[in-house]
Write a structure and sequence with these properties.
Length: about 150
């Protein structure tokens, strides 16, 4: 275990790779489930699979697969080296860290993202992973922080 209480070694059998087109529906389901479970400060009806699928048309979507099941998803908008999504259903096993590092490598070591201000757990995660907060703003009444790496 590391100082954040996470496993130091990757879960056995976990594979991180680019999502196949036929997996995008399952990715959208992970997105909605994680948002509904963790973004409790927003009404659950704001989390829609259609939003993920619309954004995914312009993004590279990566998955963490464990025993044939998608347990995490990340989406990279390459033109801006922007991490649009990082959602993990099985938290506390190091899946998010591995997904983030995979996307960071795919982006060439430079990555930006926005994190909702209310999402303190994610902020702590990104800071532990070497990101720094460079800006604050608001979108549709939801305050956010912008983080950069590299």
């Amino acid at each position: 275990m590391d100082d954040a209480g996470l496993r130091a070694d990757p879960p056995r059998g976990l594979v991180i790779r680019r999502a196949r087109p036929d997996e995008l529906g399952a990715c959208a389901n992970v997105y909605v489930r994680v948002l509904t479970d963790t973004f409790t400060w927003l009404p659950p009806e704001r989390h829609r699979a259609e939003d993920f699928l619309a954004a995914a048309r312009d993004e590279e979507v990566f998955v963490a697969v464990d025993a044939g099941r998608i347990v995490g998803v990340a989406a990279l908008y390459r033109p801006q080296a922007f991490l649009h999504s990082l959602y993990v259903g099985d938290r506390g096993r190091g899946v998010g860290r591995l997904l983030l590092r995979y996307v960071l490598a795919a982006a060439g070591g430079r990555l930006e993202l926005k994190c909702q201000t209310a999402n303190r757990r994610a902020q702590a995660f990104y800071l532990r992973e070497g990101f720094r907060c460079v800006e604050a703003g608001e979108d549709g009444g939801v305050p956010w922080l912008r983080f950069v790496h590299g």
